[in-house]
Amino acid sequence: MNDTRRGEEAGEERPLLRKPARHSLATQWKRHMAAHVSRDWADVVLVSCYLITGLLDSASISVWGSFVSMQTGNTVYLGLGLAAPTESTRWVKSGVSLASFCIGSFLFSRFHRYFSPKRRWVLVASFTGQFCFTAAAAAIVSAAGTPANKEEAGWRVLVPIALVAFQSCGQAVTSRALRYNALTSVVLTSIYCDLFSDSELFALLNAERNRRAGAPLFLLLGAFLGGRFAHSSFGVAGALWAASALKMAVVVAWLVWPSNPPASRGDADEGRRRQDSDSRLLPAAN
């Protein structure tokens, strides 16, 4: 009788003993997601984003005739189209891409600024959103097909362009959040200039040179892969699905990325000032 009662009492106590463990795990996860990611080696992730840009832009320009990330070319196409609007529909697609990119920049930057630029869950949410938009564009192209006429500017062309262009600015905003302003993943001209202007171009150890050299190389590789997709049976849909997979890989990277060590009380004010500085960097021009 006593043994049974003891067993019942022990059974009643077991769930109570487990709750702190579950609570502790949930607390650790919340702290992990709320932590600010470390900038150390984060430039590697940003340089790898150039691969995604090259993949998307080369496939897009090959099939649709407009860019979805690099908006300098789209601005030129838009100007040429306004000068002769009946010669081609490229300016319409370029205009949609440019407008979507600008709207995305407005929203992504404010999202990062409001919730803290380098917080882990903010970076994860940003790239998860980018994945969703890219995957949605891939699904539309897979279902609706690619137009045989490159001049077509119907919904099955304009909607995927708008979705991909909208999300592509998220990478540029992330470079501002992590204070690697040059690694926007959408601009190369200034990187080429800075790379070959570097007084220590041939130095053995030069991290800045390595970043500047890695960006065009990764974009070139992505452009090659995007071109191969565009001229294969997979088409632009294959390039979009591949880019979606790479976006999800970046999400995983941010989930496991090291955090900044907790700041002491004496460093709290400095940390807040630096966070405010990071926030002000977000709307900076390319």
Automatic annotation (TrEMBL):
UniProt keyword Protein transport present: no
Record's compositionally biased regions (Basic and acidic residues): 266-279
UniProt keywords, alphabetically: Membrane, Transmembrane, Transmembrane helix
Keyword Repeat: no
One protein family per Pfam: DUF1275
Lineage top rank: taxon: Eukaryota
Name of the protein in its database record: DUF1275 domain protein
Source organism (scientific name): Lasiosphaeria miniovina
